[in-house]
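ENTRY TYPE: paired fold submission
RECORD: A
CONTENT: sequence, then C-alpha cells
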Amino acid sequence: MGAQQGTDGGWGALLQPQGLPALAVLLGGVLLHSMNVLLLATVLPTIVGELGGAALMSWPTTAFLASSIVAATCTGLLTASIGARAAFCTGAFVFGVGATLCSLAPDMGWVVAGRFVQGFGGGVLTAVAYIVVRSTFPEAAWARAIALLSGMWSVSIVVGPLAGGAFARYGDWRGVFVAVSAIAFVLAVGAWWALPATASAPRKVPKVPGLRVALICAAIAGTSSAAVVASPLAKAGLIALSVVTLALMIRIDRRAKAPLLPGDAFSFATQTGLGLWLVLLLCVAYSPVQIFVPIFLQRLHGFDPLAAGYAVAGASFGWTSAALLVAGAAGAWPGRLMLAGPATMAVGLAALALLAPSAPWPMLPAIVVLGAGIGVCWAFVAQRVMGGARRGEEAIAASSVPTVQQMGFALGAALAGLTANTSGFSTGSASGVAAAAFWVPASFVAPALLALVIALRLRARSTGRA
C-alpha cells in the first residue's frame, strides 16, 4: 500500500480496500483528540464538584493545549527517528496513559497532570496523521483525505458531549476517562497493524526548539498562575512576565535557523504578521465558552451535564456551519467577512454576558452566534497568512496558523480563569458564579473588538490600500 498505487483521481483513489484500514485509524486518531475538548467541558463541572479546585478550572485546558504545542514541535523529530507508524502508536499510547491518570485523580492537580500527558499524545496523533496521508495515499487523494480528517472535528461535536454527558449524568466521570484510555490503547494496536511501516519523515532529523517551547509554556503557565494567586500585585507581575516571555520567544524565533513562525510574525506592517495577530485574538475571544459556560448552565440554571455539553457544542456547530456557508465567497466578500467575524463574536460575547446570569435558553443562540463569528472569517484569515508569506517561508507560514491557534486557545483559557476567579468564581457561592457568568464573556468583548481593528488593517493591507 504505497503512494504510487491507485493513481486514479477522485474518491476512488482514497477509498481503495487496501487503504481503508489505514484511513480508519487516522480518522480515529483525530477524532479521539478532538472529541476530548468537548468531553472535558461536559465532565469538568462534575469533577470540580467531587474534587474541588474551582480556582484551577482553566488549568486542564491550558495544560492540554500547551502540551499539544510541545508535541507539534517534537513530531518532526519523532517521526524522523522512529517512523510515522511507530510515532502514531506512541501518541495513542501516551494519550491513553494520560486518560488513565485522569481516571485515578485524587485532586484537581492530578487531573491537570493527566491532561498535560493527554495533550502531548493527542498533538502527536493529529500531526502524524497528515504525514501518513502524504506517504500512504496517492497525491490525487490528499485533498479528500485531509477534508475527512478535518471533518472529524465536526463529528466530535456529537461524540464529545454525548460521551462525557452519559457518564457525568450518573456521577461516573472517571468512567469516561477509562473508556477513552481503552479506545486509545486499541487504536495503538490497530495502527501498528494497519499503517505501513515505511511511512517515515524526511531523512534529516530536525532539532526540537527546546528553549522556544519552554518560553511558550512558561508564558501560558504564568498567565494560569495569575488566576490563583491572591495578591493583585502578584497577578499583575505574572501577566507582565508572560507578555515579556512571549515577546522574547518571538525575538529568538526570528533569529533561529529553523523558526516556528514566519520572520514577520506579529508584525503590524505585513499581511502575514497582521493575519497571525488576528488568528491569536480570534482564538482568545472564542476560548472561554467551552470552559466556563457548561458550569454556568449547571450551577445557575440546573442543566444536566449532557444538556450543558450539547449547549456549548452549539459554538462548534456555528463555526462549522458558517465556514461551509461562506466557503465559496469571492471578490470583495472575503474582506467583508473578515470584518464581520470579530464583530459578530463581540455581539455574541456581549449577549452571553447579559444572559448567562439569569436567562439560560436565550444563551443558546448567543453561543451559536459566537461560533458563527469565527467560522465566517477563519478560512480567509488563514488564506491571508499563507498568501502574504515571504519567499521561502511558505511552509512555515502555513504551519504557523495551527501553532498560533493553539497558543490563542491556551492564553484565552488562562485569561478566562483569571477573570473568573477575580470576579468570585473560586468562592463557589451562587453570587460568585453569577458574577463570573457576566464578567467572563464580558471581558472577552475587548479581544474581539481589537481583532476587528486588526481586520480593518489587514483588509487594507491585502487590497493594497495601506
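RECORD: B
CONTENT: sequence, then C-alpha cells
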Amino acid sequence: MDILLMGPPGAGKGTQGAILAERLGLPKFATGDLLRDAVKRGTPLGLQAKSVMEAGHLVSDDIILGVVREELGRAQARRGVVFDGVVRTIPQAEGVAKILADLGRKMDAVLFFDVTDDAILDRLEKRRQIDGRADDDPAAVKVRLKAYREQTAPVLAWYEQRGGVIHIPAVGTVEDIADRVREALKRR
C-alpha cells in the first residue's frame, strides 16, 4: 500500500508517518531522509544532491524523483511506502504517479493533515522550546507556511481532482490523530 501524507509544516506528518509505517510494516520516505541517505551511500544521485545542497540551492524535481525511483526499487519498498511529505510540487506528483505506474502500483491513499496556522505556530513554539530548533522560530515558521501555501498546497488540489484525498483533523493527542488515520484507511 502506497500512502502519501500531506499538510503544512507542524501538522504532524512525521509523527503520524512513523506510527503508520510501523503499524503497516512499511518504510517511511521523507525527502530529507532520502536525500541524506543517498548522499551517505554515495549514489550518483546522492552526489548530485550533495553538490546542490552544499551550494545552498533546492534540489531539483529530477533529482528527487530519481532518488524516489531508486528507493522504490529496493526490496523493503516492494509492499508499499508511507511518503512523508515527499511530493511537494505538481511535477513531483506527476513523476511519482508515473514511477508507481511503471511498477504496477498507484498511490492508494493521500492523507491531508488539516490544522490551523494558530495551532501550528503553538505546536512549533513548544517544539522550539523543547528541541531548540532554529527553524521553529515564529518568523521562520511563517516563512515556511507561506512557502508551503505557494508551492505545496497546489499539489493538494491536483490530488483532489483525482479523487483521492482524505482530510484528517490534525488536532488532539497523537493517539487521537493516529486513531483517525487508522479509521480513515479502514474505509478505503
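NOTES ON RECORD B: The chain has one domain: 2-175. Residues 2-175 form a domain with the Rossmann fold fold (CATH 3.40.50.300).
STATUS: closed
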